[in-house]
Protein: Protein SlyX homolog
Organism: Denitrobaculum tricleocarpae
Amino acid sequence: MTQELQTRLDSLETHVAEQERTIQDMSDEMAKQWTSLDAAAAKIDRLLDRIRALEGQIDGSDDDTPPPHY
């Protein structure tokens, strides 16, 4: 193998190694993003449950009943 081919091969191997590292870094970051997204979705679900419970309490009151001083 000539020196020129060896240099090109070394360059390509370096480039591939850098791309693999970048892909792994992006994969790790994406996993973190999914974890954060799942946590946010769970929090939203809990908040919606609380809102529904509060709406149920509000809707459960009888608004047609006149106040006691009537």
